[in-house]
Specification:
Distance between the termini: 14 Å
Strand content: under 5%
Radius of gyration: 22 Å
CATH architecture: Orthogonal Bundle
Number of domains: 1
Largest sheet: none
Order of helices and strands: HHHHHHHHHHHHHHHHHHHHHH
Structural class: mainly alpha
CATH class: Mainly Alpha
Number of strands: 0
């Protein structure tokens, strides 16, 4: 049996600079300084960030497969699987819609685009056309059909999260239905979990290098000065996302018996990794591991988090309505209440149709504006230069939203170990990635 590292073994013996979150935070600061003062060098460091994200994406598929397949196969009652899925989607729908409404309300109150008086005909739309083309190809039906992989190998080869999740669910159900005859396969998959999570732990040691390269590239290419040009929009978006996390998700957390700030502290390493790389995928394996260590049942973690990466996008939804109304205000395009409601309804669908696509936030905005002709899609050129700076906030908000969803659904299903969860929220667990202990075969 391989036992996890205990908090007692690490507490007080590890210097502060050995903690991952300290290293990542230092790397982010160094990347900002290098990108600002030496932009050409900063831009040349893009491969560091890209290489780290590729390393993590390499293990996402096996992590999802092993977590989901073994979790479902170990379920005594498959009806519980249906309940977990049903409750997860109800949660996703409610809070994704609420995020859209919050973005709509804030943009009407603050009006960050008012007074700019920009003529859409004067904007250069060449850079926007690529996103508009991708948005045209994205549809809800096409998105749902794409969940089913052409082949089993193809799902893992492409690394499509939903395709891997779909196969993992089907395989887990079949493995559980096989009973004792499937037990050797289940034991093998449980044993395989150990080296896979060891690999995740190893790759996370390169996180500071990846965060340094990604941040140096972002600041070097786009410049901090870019933020000042549209500071009100960026500030409004960050403030709105913070309010949503602390007030809306905070209320959900309090109702379910925990503190949103305690949860944020628990996943701080992953949040800093998302901030540094602008990619929530870079922290997906770590989040799944941490939520299971915090007492959430493996079957719940394996279903809620990967699904939430495509369907529970609170930050992206806030961005879509806020950015759409910013464009309307900046181009002096009047929008009636009916127009705004239509925009809300279209955004609800388009956010699912383009989920999982690289640059999904900007693409979903293009898809939404393409269906609501009253807002000129050419206006997207106004925010293209600062989209990179808002992508971090989108990813962070989405990430926290999925962590909250996992705890809430686990609690609803009585699949939350309250003792472990209380210890996690109190900071009494090891901060290192933990390798799940192997259970002896019965």
């Amino acid at each position: 049996m391989i036992a996890p590292i205990t908090a007692a073994e690490t507490r007080g013996k590890v210097p502060f600079y050995r903690h991952l979150y300290v290293q990542v935070l230092t790397a982010i600061a160094a990347g900002i300084l290098l990108g600002h003062f030496y932009p050409q060098i900063g831009t040349s460091l893009q491969p560091l960030g890209d290489a780290f994200i590729k390393l993590v994406r390499m293990v996402i598929a096996p992590v999802i497969f092993l977590t989901v397949a073994t979790g479902i196969a170990g379920m005594a009652d498959l009806k519980k699987f249906g309940r977990v899925v049903g409750k997860s989607f109800i949660y996703f729908l409610v809070f994704s819609t609420l995020a859209l409404i919050v973005g709509l309300i804030v943009s009407n109150v603050v009006q960050p685009g008012a007074g700019m008086h920009i003529n859409p005909a004067t904007l250069d739309t060449k850079a926007v056309n690529n996103y508009a083309a991708q948005a045209h190809d994205a549809s809800v039906v096409g998105f749902l059909m794409n969940i089913i992989p052409d082949t089993i190998v193809g799902a893992f080869a492409k690394g499509d999260i939903l395709q891997v999740l779909f196969f993992s669910v089907v395989f887990g159900i079949a493995l559980g239905a096989a009973g004792e005859r499937g037990r050797p396969v289940l034991d093998f998959l449980q044993a395989l979990t150990t080296p896979i999570f060891r690999m995740v732990a190893l790759l996370m040691k390169f996180a500071p290098i990846g965060a340094f390269g990604a941040m140096a590239f972002t600041i070097g290419k786009y410049g901090i000065g870019t933020i000042a040009n549209l500071a009100l929009l960026i500030g409004t978006f960050y403030a709105t996302s913070l309010i949503f996390v602390l007030v809306v998700l905070g209320a959900v957390a309090r109702y379910n018996g925990f503190s949103i700030l305690a949860l944020i502290r628990y996943i701080k390493e992953e949040l800093l990794l998302v901030l540094g790389t602008s990619s929530s995928e870079a922290a997906l394996p770590g989040l799944m591991n941490k939520m299971e260590r915090a007492g959430c049942k493996r079957s719940v973690v394996g279903l809620v988090i990967p699904t939430g990466y495509s369907f529970n996008l609170d930050g992206t939804n806030i961005y879509m309505t806020l950015a759409a109304l910013f464009i309307a205000q900046a181009t002096d395009t009047p929008l009636s209440l009916a127009d705004q409601i239509l925009l809300l309804l279209v955004a609800m669908l388009s956010s699912k149709g383009a989920a999982g696509i690289t640059g999904a936030g900007f693409i979903t905005l293009a898809a939404t504006l393409a269906v609501v002709p009253s807002v000129p899609i050419a206006g997207m050129a106004l925010i293209l230069g600062i989209d990179r700076f808002m992508s971090e906030c989108r990813a962070l908000t989405n990430f926290v939203g999925n962590a909250v969803a996992t705890v809430v659904v686990a609690r609803w299903e009585n699949e939350l170990d309250q003792t472990k969860f209380a210890a996690a929220m109190a900071g009494q667990l090891s901060e290192d990635i933990e390798v799940p202990a192997l259970q002896p075969a019965e």
